[in-house]
Specification:
The chain folds into two domains: about 180 residues, FAD/NAD(P)-binding domain (3-Layer(bba) Sandwich), CATH 3.50.50.60; about 120 residues, 3-Layer(bba) Sandwich (FAD/NAD(P)-binding domain). The chain has seven helices and 19 strands. Strands 1, 2, 5, 6, 7, 8 and 19 form a seven-stranded mixed β-sheet that branches. Strand 12, helix 6 and strand 13 form a beta-alpha-beta unit. The protein is elongated.
Amino acid sequence: MPEKVIIIGSGPAGLTAAIYAARANLSPLLFEGFQSGGIPGGQLMITGLVENFPGFKNGISGQHLMAEMREQALNFGVRFIMEDVESISLNTSPFSLISTSGDAYEAQSVIIATGATAQRLPIHSEPIFWGRGISACAVCDGALPIFRDKPLAVIGGGDSAVEEAMHLTKFGSKVYLIHRRDELRASRIMQKRATTHPKIEILWNKTVEYFFGDKLLEGLHLKDTVTGELSTIRVSGAFEAIGHRPNTGFLNNQLPVDDKGYLITKPGSTVTSIDGVFAAGDVKDSHYRQAITAAGSGCMAALEVEWWLQNKFE
């Protein structure tokens, strides 16, 4: 018999969807992933202190938060498979899935909650300081004590980079915005905000050559893309804002995406263009990309699956 619902992804969206689906007696099966798109648990597994998820007065580590959510799902009877979904066929019902091990599964409905992976600089020194001064989310990490009243850097030139820089001005003593060209890609209004903010200094035509420090990040070596001149800035934090890549490769273009590659859903819902297929979390959200909004859309997806199954099969 096909599963009533299969959930793909084990971040806040996937686990919340699983909890709601289990409480609705849908007996959800959840693929928590293994290698594709990062580790099981999503991006919070590489996030330090999470201070903006409600319910934890002193904050909670990303790993601890995801472990608690997983245990909660287990307590409600969610079944977990620690594998990736290698492929899925959405052109017939029930939908068919093939896992990493080659096992086949069928489902009446599917919730896609595979998230998005932050693009990172391919620099040898970058992994050394990841989580030790380097981050890809200023909203998540900018308020941490190690960044307060310290000089910080944002790498990128689009709207997201400027938004990150603006957010960091609330905490850092100074924010360098490092861009490899001589003009920002951000919208005009965002460019104006960046160029007129007293705490932001834009370093034009610069790329990061090397991150340096002892146990924590202490600074960046930069290279001028025009002259080749090398320079150094000392910062306590560097935030990579060079984009995210939604984890949708296994779908093989069966669902429409927007110009950034994010899955398209019906406005105000998690409903995709294929009947019985729903999308939640960062795989469809290029704007907020927060744990709490991902969890909220996971709740929406589970409720919409429950209603859809009732109307379809009862």
